[in-house]
Amino acid sequence: MRFGQDLHRYQVPEWASSYIPYVSLKSMFNTAVREAMHKRTQPDFTETLLSLERGINTISDFHDDKYQFLLKREDGIRRKFGLPLERGEWLVGERLGCCQLEELLRAIIELREDFQKLQWYFRVNTEAINRVYSKLDRCSGLSGPLHQQRSKWLERKADRDAVCARDAEILRNLTAEIRRSLALPGSRPETLHRQSTQHGVIPDLLCCITEDQSSQLSAFLEKLSLDYGAHSPRFRELVYDMAGLSLTYGAKNSVNFFLFEAFQKYGVEIDNGILIHMICLLGRSGTLGGYNGVNITSPCGHKKRRDEVMASCFFHTVQRLGHQKKDVFLAKDAIGRNCLHYSALYRLQVICQSILEPARRDRSYALRLILSVDSQGYTPLHYAVIDNHLAITDMFLAALDLEGETSEKTTKDLVTLLDELLFIAIRYQFRDIVYLLGKRHSGCDTQSPEGETALYVAAQTGNEKVVDFLLSTGWVKYIDAAETARGWTPLFIACAQGHQAVTKLLLQAGARQDIVDDIGWTSKEHAALRGHLIVAEMLDSWSTLNLPGSPSSMHVKPVSGAQVHLPPDYSYVIINLGATRKGNQAKAVVFNPNSEGYICTGGSLALEVSVSEGNDTSRAVELPILNDMVNEPFTFPVSDPDKTWLAFMLYRAGSLHTGGRALLGSGVALLKSLSDCFGTDRESLIRERTIPILSKDTLILLGTVTFTFLIASPMAPLNISARGTPTFTTSSLQLVGHRGLGQNTANRSHLQLGENTMESFRSAAKQGATYVELTRDLVPVLYHDFSLSESGTDIPIHDLTVEQFLYVSKLQSGCPVQDVRKPHGVENTHTRSWSLTGEYGPGTQEIRDRLKHTVEFTNKGFKPNTRGDFIQDSFTTLEDVLTKLPESVGLNVEIKYPRIHEAAEAGVAPLAIEINTFVDKILEKILLHARNTRNIILSSFTPEVCILLAFKQRVYPVMFITNAGKPPVADLETRASSLQSAVRFAKRWSLSGVVFASETLISCPRLIGYVKQSGLVCGSYGLQNNIPENAKVQAAAGIDILMADRVGLISGALRAGGYL
């Protein structure tokens, strides 16, 4: 669900302009659908398909270029270490010594990381492309050109997956071979004299190098020069390679002998290759320690010596180059890199200073060196910025600022480069680099391919300090510049992302709030839609009802996959991967760090989920999961949930030998055992479970899978006569009494009946309410709060019997204790409900004293339906209401299942009645006692309850209730976190509608049209609904259901306005 919103977080910043234009493609798709709806024709997706095909070709070309660059690097590694040029053949164990093996391993680890980077690039693009095709499929079906184009894409993807798996397996096997070779006795320096090199050099010469005995090298080389020929290419190549081997082993004396004696004597030149070798040895010295669990204990004793020697050797060598050093520094290797590229890449500041030393007097040299582009189009300045090295970046920029003549083309190229680097630094959120680039190059005109300015990208990341800097250094002129895909300004993206500080800065800088995007939405509406109500409240309220376009005219995207209709003949296991609560940071799949290097360097990974019913039903998801799957659950029919187990299988797509997917490991969860420990008909409110995934070969821990599950079991048949389905019409506004005549509050401005009492329900109906709301519990009773505080303790309702519940109600009756204890059936002669003032009834202070230490009284300062604060009446049960309330009064039965945050606030264990039993008991009472003429709505704040209500019965409409992001947010349920999330959840499970906290709809009333356009009934509740103007605003926007406490006041106002 959040893929598009989070896409910028998944992108490699320096490659951001080379991704599939997902946002633009979505915009084209939505435009085609809107135009078709307006013309009442079939959508024409020709433009979308053509743009998608161009995008696929573009990312394929980009991928191929980067892939060829990596292959060229791999080829260079093979040649350098004398390995077979045929991919897949390495044979390193008998060819190389320990220091050479370590150097090779460092190079391969670096190469593997870059292969993974490219693999991640393709993974993100694949997700975007598949999502676009899915949208097209849901609207037009896979036929004609769409089918052909998608088939071509799937073939291309399959080929790339196979190549990726092959490359990963080659590098993985090589890493394993090197580690094995390092552990062999033959790789020790003291046994190296038994080995030979690729040149067939005699062992004594190698021994001299490893032991750094330079005095003997001259004699050996003199002898070899006679055999090979002193000036033959083969002999010179041997001398050159021996110098490189001396560098690898850090043999200072040998290095000095080769570079400053042997090279001169035999006509071998010191070139960029020697200097690059030194730089790479210095830069890669720490590679082994931090790579995905690759832990190498080196048997080579030369590493420390080599690191100490290498820097001094570099400076001495550069000094000996004299006037030739400019040419050597400018020379490029096989992949187009010069010495400065590698120095910046490995963060070697002192080396960079040495290379740039001649540039102090020659700006043209500095430009040629710093702006030199390698085979993947990067300059040394690119690598300094990408690696967030402030000092090197500053050094390069200072060198470019030197006085001197510069051609117009060079100046233009430099400006373009600085623009590009600024975007990269902003996307990486390298604040100091942004400051550095921005001060030298303020107010750039460059935009991304989708029209995004630097200020827009900064607002998207949410980095308020970067946004503040840009606004103060020239970019304020772009504050209202809109990108081309959706017509969003920086204020739009900040609001949509929920960045409060950035939104405040933009508003203070004068960002216009009256701009609408390409579909007629305002930035305020985008914030409210996504649950960012604090951000929405920061923007001005102004009339949007008459603006062109609106949320109600927006095409409502189908939910991913089909809507869920569960036939009630089976039980079902409903699985969500990952957590469904924002407070739980657990990811769906987490790899063990010690195994991550093995797992993540393969081809595409997939997790397959199945059940033990033998129906061959399974669901698979590609890893890592890039989108929010909270409304994309896996649903499995099962015959016996108590005997069902879940299987999670981890696969790698593609294999070098088999060509098919390869099983890596698996895990199993027994559903019954996950709840057995809580007792009969009890379960934990915490539905997340985490199980290990073990390797199929070694049984080591590969990682964990976190999931939530819900078992939906059908109700037992009831012996009742067939009944017609009560109608539920929304042709006119329905006014609902909240908890009867109204929720009890601390407000003393009006008389309040005790909430959820029979008298409250009757009064609501008399004053114009069409429905009343009621709540709770197992023998279903009417009570709203989590715990019963009237007894003086915080006891969860589900831990009381109905007799205990009703007895607590009688404690406030004003009767002597002996009257309370009268036998069942003996009526109390004093039946008047106690008035609002406590002075008329005995024991008022005693009641308040009993309540004062309970959680709710501490938080609110009162307890609903208590004598002395409200007109108190007895508690009642659901059955009493169904049988005694006039049939003309409809009922909104809010099923109040306990929630985790309520248990946490009350300080009790997060346990409750098993949710199927809970729902079944309530439905039994409703189906047995409700009459055909009474209208009933079923509703709940708990998503699982709504799912079960929709599954277990088809008689009454089901409504989902949500705060929709209203602060303070206590319930961290993801499916209730915003209006958008709630609408998606309701559509996914075929619910009738959603009831929102009214703040969202009052702030942005046009969102009511968005909900109704989705095919859902829209309702609201909350204290704001007691204000007549707020009720009128929602009524004018088309609200279907309005829940209020002050029913008489709101009813009169709506009637006066012609809404009732």
Automatic annotation (TrEMBL):
Ranges for domain SPX: 1-150
Under the heading Pfam families, the entry gives: Ank, Ank_2, C2_GDE1, GDPD
Q: Which GO terms describe its molecular function?
A: glycerophosphocholine phosphodiesterase activity
Q: Which GO terms describe its biological process?
A: glycerophospholipid catabolic process
- Residue span, GP-PDE domain: 733-1054
Q: What are the UniProt keywords, alphabetically?
A: ANK repeat, Hydrolase, Repeat
The ANK repeat boundaries are: 376-397, 450-474, 486-518
* Top-rank lineage group of the source organism: Eukaryota
What is the protein's name according to its record?
Answer: GP-PDE domain-containing protein
Q: Which organism is it from?
A: Aspergillus thermomutatus (Neosartorya pseudofischeri)
Q: What is the lineage of its organism?
A: Eukaryota, Fungi, Dikarya, Ascomycota, Pezizomycotina
